[in-house]
Amino acid sequence: MKTLVVAATKAEVAFFYQHFNLPEGDFIESKNFDLLITGVGMVATAFSLGQYLTPNKYNLVINVGIAGCFDRNIKLGSLLNISEDIFAELGAENGDDFLTITDLGFGENQFKAKSKKIIDLPSVKSITVNCVTGSEKSIRNLKERINPTTESMEGAAVFYACKRENIDCLQIRSVSNYVEPRNKENWEIGLAIRNLNEWMISFISEMN
To answer: In this structure, what are the phi and psi dihedrals at residue 196, rounded to the nearest 5 degrees?
Structure first.
């Protein structure tokens, strides 16, 4: 069995493609690992994993990508180990209160990483959203309700799929921006992608 590397976009893993001389494509099989590009968002991610996630083929799934960060003490470009991820919007509004899908009795909204591998990176809690947070009101509400460190649009979907298939999973995110009213001038996507790919190349090389 081997590792499945999962990313939303090719741009986030561009240097990884180059280092391992991988062919173009959204699903690439190699000797020691496979790479899956799912598309952006939890729906695309769940669909792609439904097509390719095979319990008897993989003993580890690692989701990688960039993320927004709520904590300004964490430097842009930093790498983080997402130990817990939450579907932040899955539920119902009850006046000013939010009821999670767990509160409603319809399932789980919170998932944890599961792996025997020791990751020497800070462990943090993240949320998965359909709509990237970009207003002071939304930021304040999320901090009060969940107090996450980062947000992405795919992470919890990967954890969910791996839990259903009983496959170990990790999620590594590189901070590309702070969660704030949208301002591209403050983003460091290039730095975040470079740091992420350097870590990925080292991690996969050491495993094999």
So the answer is: -65, -45
Structure tokens, 79: 């790498």
Helix (H) or strand (E) holding 6: strand 2-7
Q: Which residues have C-beta within 8 Å of that of residue 3, sequence separation ≥ 6?
A: 32, 33, 34, 58, 59, 60, 61, 62, 204, 207
Maximum CA extent, the chain: 53
Cβ count within 10 A of residue 175 = 24
Structure-block tokens of residue 30: 């190699």
N-to-C CA span, the chain: 12
Residue 9 φ/ψ region, left for φ over 0, alpha for ψ in the -120 to 50 degree band, beta for the rest: beta
Nearest CA-CA partner of 90 in 81, 78, 98, 80 = 98
Strands 97-100 and 110-112: unpaired
- Cα–Cα distance for residue pair 179/24, rounded to 1 Å: 32
Q: Tokens at residue 197, please?
A: 């790919």
pTM: 0.94
Q: Residue 142: enclosing H or E segment and its boundaries?
A: helix 136-145
Write the pLDDT tens digit of every residue in 120-160: 999 999 999 999 999 999 999 999 999 999 999 999 999 99
